[in-house]
Design a protein that fits this description.
This protein has 369 residues and is an alpha+beta fold. The protein is 35% helix and 23% strand. The structure holds zinc ion (2 copies).
């Protein structure tokens, strides 16, 4: 991974945002920039050098991970209190020069309390300024190393569907199916799941985020399985919907409509297309099938070090897709109290369109258990 290049590009963009330095506190951003994966960190990025503040627990790990990331211009400071206060004290130390210093902070990851504490330590010429999401913007476009890791994560994630198919039976509890899938994920090397496994059976399939519960799979009905792993730091995300027992024609109709919507959205993914256009492609299919009112969430999201990243594929999103972006395409239709269907894949935007990761077209025909 080109951590040094990421830091260099971030630094060169600070000036145009009228910042002298950026205090990175969102941990996935810290990891992205310098390779450090610990749970306590603040990374100060400035053209006078970069400093990683962490605490005593991470002394060895920080040294090793920064060496692996080959970021030679990043110093490590072990803070006595919190990494954030360590950074504040460092910034407050008297320095030469009389001009005001503008330090950017990441407003989405800093609480009001943290900001107050920072401000109380930083007096005089250091001013805090909410920075735009500079690191998040850089993270949207993945490099070849990242795409390789995401591909591996998606492949491991995809293999869990086989376990789901083997385990889903009338009478089995949803949590048992999830447990079997998660055990397999760990055996495959996953650090964990990228979110609580969603397993929503029968009427619960209409609940968009129906985490696996104690409910038992009924004799007949849909089961929505939405699952993802974290492998080497990168997330996967996939949804398959199966039907237990012979599906009535309306169930097939609903399923086929969602599948058609997903295929239309995938076909709309290309460089220069807006996020809204991809969302619109899915919605148009469901409108034609008189199901638009049951599609109540956005069509997809970016993913990478985090399960939900920019861009968001929804109405009104004018962001243009670029090669290297990695996004999910996951339309669904949910009839409250009755049933629901969602189908989700991860795609990489290429120079001419997109590539579906771990494609498995066969399992997208309605699987009947
Ligand atoms: Zn998902
Ligand atoms: Zn998703």
């Amino acid at each position: 991974m080109d951590h040094a290049g990421r830091l260099r590009r971030l630094l060169s963009g600070l000036g145009e945002n009228r910042l002298d330095s950026l205090l990175v506190t969102h941990l996935p951003n810290v990891r992205y920039l310098c390779g450090f994966t610990g749970s306590a960190a603040a990374l100060l990025v400035s053209d006078r050098g970069c400093i990683l503040f962490t605490d005593g627990r991470y002394r060895t790990q920080a040294r090793e991970e920064l060496a692996d990331a080959k970021v030679r211009n990043v110093r490590i400071v072990i803070a006595r209190k919190s990494p954030l206060l360590g950074a504040a004290e460092w910034l407050a130390a008297p320095r030469s020069g009389s001009a005001a210093v503008f330090v950017g902070i990441e407003p989405e990851s800093i609480t009001a309390g943290m900001r107050d504490r920072l401000a109380s330590v930083l007096k005089g010429k250091t001013r805090l300024r909410s920075a735009p999401p500079l690191v998040e913007r850089a993270r949207m476009v993945k490099d070849a190393d990242e795409i390789l890791l995401i591909r591996r994560a998606v492949e491991l994630g995809a293999s869990l569907f086989r376990i789901a198919r083997e385990t889903i039976r009338p009478g089995v509890r949803e949590v048992e199916v999830a447990a079997a899938m998660e055990y397999e994920a760990r055996r495959g090397g996953a650090e964990g799941m990228s979110f609580s496994t969603i397993l929503a059976s029968g009427k619960r399939s209409a609940v968009i985020h129906g985490r696996a519960s104690e409910a038992r799979v009924p004799r007949r009905g849909f089961v929505v399985c939405d699952f993802g792993v974290i492998l080497a730091g990168y997330c996967s995300d996939r949804t398959r919907t199966v039907h237990v027992g012979q599906p009535p024609w309306e169930a097939r109709y609903l399923y086929e409509a969602v599948l058609e919507a997903q295929e239309a959205a995938i076909a709309a993914v290309r460089p220069g297309a807006t996020a809204a256009a991809v969302d619109g492609a899915a919605r148009r299919v469901l409108r034609r099938r008189k199901l638009a009112r049951y599609f109540t969430h956005s069509t997809g999201h970016g993913l990478g070090l985090e399960i939900h990243e920019a861009p968001r594929l929804a109405a009104g999103q004018s962001m243009k897709l670029e090669p290297g972006m990695v996004i999910t395409i996951e339309p669904g239709a949910y009839v409250p109290g009755k049933w629901g269907v969602r189908i989700e894949d991860v795609v990489v935007v290429t120079s001419s369109g997109c590539e579906v990761l771990a494609p498995a077209d066969k399992e997208k025909e309605l699987v009947v258990i």
